[in-house]
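Sequence, structure tokens reproduced for reference:
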Amino acid sequence: MRIQEAGLLFTVTETEEAIHEGLSWRAEARAESTVQIRGGFLADLPSFGKTVTTIALIQSKFETLSPEEIIENNQSVAEQFEEYNVCVIRDFAELKHLTIDGVQQSRVIIVSWTVLSDDEYISELAWATAMPEPASSSCRAFHAWMDGVGKDLPSQVLLLQSMDLVDFTQATQRILEGRLQQPEFQATLPLRLQHGSNYQSYQTVRSGQKKSVKHKPPTKRKSSGLNGKVVPLLHMFRFNRLVVDEYHHYLNDYKKIKNMLTAVSVKKVAAHKRWILSGTPALANFTDIDNIASFLGVRLGRFAVQSSKLTPLEEFLVNDQTAVERFLTKTEVMSQAWRRARHDQAQEFLDKFVRQNEASLGHIPCHEELRAVDLDVAHHAVYLELSQHLNSQRMQVKRLKNKGDSDRVSRLNASLNNSKTAEYALLKAALLYGTSAGESGLDSLVQKRLDQRAETEREILRLMRAFEWHKRNGFKGLNPIDPKKADKEENTVPKLWASFTQDIKKHTWLGDYDATTNTKLLLSKAEAKPTPGGLEELKEALRRR
């Protein structure tokens, strides 16, 4: 890694070809450029110490760009090895509280990727460079905007160093107002494509806009720096070493334009040496390798569709093309020699700049052994509860509706969450079961069930007493709609209640002796002391029927 930081030369080749089909002749024009790359790609497997290896490489200021989920890990590892002045920036709010001197004095800066694509960060970057804010709907437009920022930012930093903040703000506003009068910042595209008689030329549309549209003067924008201080935007600095940790984290979902804008912003941070860390890099084709090289500041060649089956990255790049570019891509057929040359160049890049250290694990004996694990009673009860539910559902993962706020339904849904299969849900239930501190899992479960049983018995007794009260009053208000058919109607409330009480008293209708005995006891209490109420619930039940 130290040798690569000294700088390795790499020749980038771009080839254009022409083929005479009749003679089977092929002519090509080749342009070559030699670039020096300081850094590379460390592709050690996960948990094999990429962060530790990188920290060992640190000799001066060092910035790490990381996904938000692993910022704390990088900070703790860095502080273990040396008394670094570690600066952690999780979001733009934390960046606003820093100063330029504070950033310069930090030995290690750990930044979340999302900071560099935050709307406030981009707005502040536009203000600092006297540029209009970019469109966020196109990755290529944002890339071009960042190129313009990169050209103007050094002169703006020199301007900031030579004057106070008030003068800098006024000078920046004048530059912005002048740029807004330039033709390239006033370009307008039609909202819809018109064909035939509806077609209008660009000059016609433009002249119409000049007559009907009154442009508002640009509003003056105030810096978001605190107490008159400029926010220390990371693009203002040139770092000695930049490390992009888990670069693929924000490139897994190419459909999210915000992720791609984040990647573009990361690539535009200036650094003398650049490193990429990832244990699972995408290496499917030339496009993936070219994407890796772009993080090191070099492009291996132009984008060209190589096959009918596109990778997610290629699909995004195709969708980001104009209609004319997509048309030319379909008409352009490159030869096998041209594709082989690109493949060889990508392989040369991998050989020079990508490394994956092999762990020395041969001396560690490894063997498989299956051991039975006995679950405690409470854990086993919860596992059986989930197993019975899944068996009743024919091992289909279906979430339950928790209308009554039942702990059983909540626990089952918690086990089923993020489980693609029933077997995986059972495995999670067998591996983990947590209880509150200081209490037994079994005691907690038993007490909860006893409370639920008592609550259910109280509710059943209340309804039984209401039925008995309405029975003694002739079930007024619950008669059938047609009184003439009362004797023939089998589903009237009086007959249903009479059948229910008869089944409870004479038969084990519930299928369980204990449940039937308890129900008989509740019915006896209801007959001994009926109470009014429950009429509205009975009417609602009949209406639902």
Notes: The CA atoms of residues 483 and 540 lie 20 Å apart. The radius of gyration is 36 Å. Strands lie at 8-20, 25-37, 39-42, 62-66, 86-89, 108-112, 238-245, 270-277, 354-355.
